[in-house]
Amino acid sequence: MRELFHAAVSVLILLPQSAVAGMSNEVYGPVLNVNGTRFELDGKPVFLLGCSYYGALGIENDAALVEDLDDLAARGVNWIRIWATWNAFDHDISAVAPTGRVREPYMERLKTICRAAGKRRMVVDVTVSRGEAPTAPSDLPTHVAVIEALARELRPFRNVYFDVGNERNIGDHRHVPMAEVAELIRRVKAIDTERLCTASHGGDISSEDVRRYLIEAKVDFLTPHRGRSAESPGETAETTRNYLRTMQELRLSAPIHYQEPFRRGYGDWEPTAGDFRSDLEAARAAGAAGWCFHNGSTRPAAEERPRRSFDMRPVEGRLFSQLDAEEREFMAYLPKAVKNHQEK
């Protein structure tokens, strides 16, 4: 009983007061919307400046969550990317099973994070990835079961969007045919008409696939995962302009959202704080609508530590405690970047 009491108190601390007053009928904001090639929050244009927070459902300590969200908000970060289906380092923290069954305590943690993010005017990217049975959706029926459960459970949260298929073009277990992307989005919209949906793409998107994403799959915005080489920051501006030109030729418009750029610990190239800065500024200046500070585990290291957002269970620590010197330097730069942008 004492544990239940403390859990309830912790959740209430994370909630905005309006939510505490009327939990059953409350709609949580801010409201995310698309207007042409830009995002809006509560009807006002916003650039989504984000941070990978993949394994957030493994955070068991509400104080650690509050510290991370406060640290992110203080630096101008206004969206985070969380995976609703995440099974890393032999620890399954997925909020929904492939059968569509809600898994606790992970679904309640996801809702708690969405509430806490909303209080700080943050958007939450809830990502689903097709994977290998029995821990992940492995075909269309199981994928539909997962995405429909999320659409029902998260309906009150207007600061949430769905990535219905992470890197759906990659030809391994992640692959989701474009027609199935369209069906997944249709299923979400049947439950929640206004929910924004995308499907992320591994690598730069061809002009033909831009057309297919917007016309066939009916995504609300494009989420290309750009290259991870030393040349990447220098390519981002022109790549962004090419997407905008392609959409103009198609007489279509949608935000370009750099949801997962390069990161440290991935391969031979270790980007510096300056590389992150250059990529962010190039994306924003060229007309992108959002950019993410991507982070994850250290592949060459023993047990891939630090794991950063890939594993934030108590044994690993909260995100900010796992960042290295280059990442901390970039984070220290963000308030200046946000201020400069606001003054333009």
Query: What's the helix count?
Result: 11
Give the CATH architecture. Alpha-Beta Barrel
The count of DSSP E runs of length 2 or more, i.e. the number of strands, is 14
The order of strands across the largest sheet is 10-9-8-5-4-14-13
Q: What is the terminal separation in angstroms?
A: 54 Å
What does this structure look like?
- The termini are far apart.
- The chain is globular.
- The protein is built from eleven helices and 14 strands.
- Strand 4, helix 3 and strand 5 form a beta-alpha-beta unit.
- The strands form four sheets. Strands 10-9-8-5-4-14-13 form a seven-stranded parallel sheet, covered by helices on one side.
- With 344 residues, the chain is of the alpha/beta class.
- Helix 8 packs parallel to helix 9 and helix 9 runs parallel beside helix 11.
- 47% of the residues are buried.
- The protein has a single domain, classed as Alpha-Beta Barrel (TIM Barrel).
Reconstruct the topology from this structure.
Elements lengths: L1 H13 L2 H5 L10 E4 L2 E4 L2 E3 L1 E5 L9 H13 L4 E5 L3 E2 L2 E2 L13 H14 L3 E5 L12 H14 L6 E4 L14 H14 L5 E2 L2 E2 L4 H11 L6 E2 L6 H19 L6 E2 L14 H14 L3 E4 L25 H4 L2 H19 L1
Parallel strand pairs: 4-5, 4-14, 5-8, 8-9, 9-10, 11-12, 13-14
Antiparallel strand pairs: 1-2, 2-3, 6-7
Helix pairs in contact: 5-6, 6-7, 8-9, 9-11
Give the tags.
alpha/beta, disordered N terminus, 344 residues, TIM Barrel
In short:
The protein has helices spanning 2-14, 17-21, 62-74, 106-119, 140-153, 178-191, 207-217, 232-250, 273-286, 319-322, 325-343, and strands spanning 32-35, 38-41, 44-46, 48-52, 79-83, 87-88, 91-92, 123-127, 160-163, 197-198, 201-202, 224-225, 257-258, 290-293. The chain has 344 residues and is of the alpha/beta class.
